[in-house]
Design brief:
Blueprint: H1 5-24, H2 28-47, H3 55-71, H4 75-96, H5 99-118, H6 122-143, H7 149-165, H8 169-185, H9 194-212, H10 221-234, H11 240-252, H12 256-269, H13 277-294
Helix pairs in contact: 1-2, 1-3, 2-3, 3-4, 3-5, 4-5, 5-6, 5-7, 6-7, 7-8, 7-9, 8-9, 9-10, 9-11, 10-11, 11-12, 12-13
Length: about 300
């Protein structure tokens, strides 16, 4: 109903929620369409109907549309949406100082950092991760928001990955180990939880560093296998990328029997492509396994 606040707000909320559901189903184009309609309605509520209390809803819809646009590879458009989300959330935090607005700001900063990293703007991505991590840390330490720990772990992991991309291996390892220690201190043992998934990501990245680094001070085959194994356990051995890492670190020790076993499972879980890099490597592991048995 035109000019009516309540029906407009209800419709915006429904579209926004459906957009999130479509995103989770992998339907990014449909998700963007619903988020776009929600953004139009929320903007009308804020700018034309004087419903300033829905500003946070507008910011959240922009954030969610930005993440969906990233999935589509429309990175410039994603940054524009996330810029607006960060700006709106920042103004709300400065005006009200509410915990909920601070959480939304941290989330938008983290998501913008992800896109900036995709664009190769590593320094800008690192700056956003720094800000998001500082906000999550403050909320956890000062307001007791332990429920945000998995988001903090995600931020630490993401910042560590960017530091690796910048060639700052020592700093990256320290960052990632901090995330691992934080998860371990909170007992992140149950597969499938956000905390366990965050721990698995950190362990996986560290396993790659320890298992494949050419620098003697970082190379640690035993720790690489330990970390990669635990990452796979935390994901019930159902993540093809993590299984690939486990195979890679075993291959680095010339244990091609274990490498073949885990890469075979990774290939089985992934797309059926006999010409893929993993399939090619699997054949190499098979040949090396047979050769070592013959020797």
């Amino acid at each position: 109903e035109e000019g009516k606040v309540e029906p407009t707000a209800d419709l915006a909320k429904i579209l926004h929620q459906r957009g999130i559901a479509l995103r989770d189903l992998g339907k990014s184009a449909a998700s963007v369409r619903d988020h776009s309609e929600a953004v139009v309605l929320y903007r009308r509520l804020v700018e034309q109907m004087g419903q300033s209390d829905t500003t946070i809803d507008l910011a959240t819809a922009l954030n969610d549309r930005g993440t969906a646009l990233r999935v589509q590879g429309k990175l410039s458009d994603a940054v524009l949406d996330l810029d607006q989300a960060v700006e709106l959330c920042t103004s709300l935090v400065e005006k009200h100082g509410r915990s909920t607005d601070t959480v939304s700001l941290a989330m938008s900063l983290n998501n913008r950092a992800n896109v900036l990293g995709d664009l190769g703007k590593l320094a800008d991505a690192l700056d956003d991760y720094d800000k998001a991590i500082a906000l999550y840390t403050r909320l956890i330490d000062e307001e007791g928001r332990k429920d945000l720990t998995s988001q903090l772990v995600t931020g630490l992991n993401n910042r560590g990955i960017v530091l690796l991309q910048q060639g700052k291996t020592q700093q990256a390892v320290q960052e990632l180990e901090e995330a691992v220690d934080l998860c371990n201190s909170l007992g992140a043992q149950e597969p499938g939880t956000d905390m366990a998934n965050g721990l698995a990501v950190g362990l996986n990245v560290l396993a790659k560093v320890y298992g494949t680094s050419n620098a003697a001070r970082f190379h640690d085959s035993a720790k690489a296998i330990e970390y990669a194994t635990r990452a796979c356990e935390l994901t019930n051995h159902q993540n093809a990328d993590l299984l690939d890492t486990l195979a890679t670190v075993y291959a680095a020790t010339r244990d091609f029997h274990a490498a073949y076993r885990w890469l075979a499972k990774s290939v089985q879980l992934g797309p059926d492509d006999p010409k893929s890099e993993r399939a090619t490597r699997l054949e190499y592991y098979r040949q090396m396994k047979s050769r070592m048995r013959a020797d």
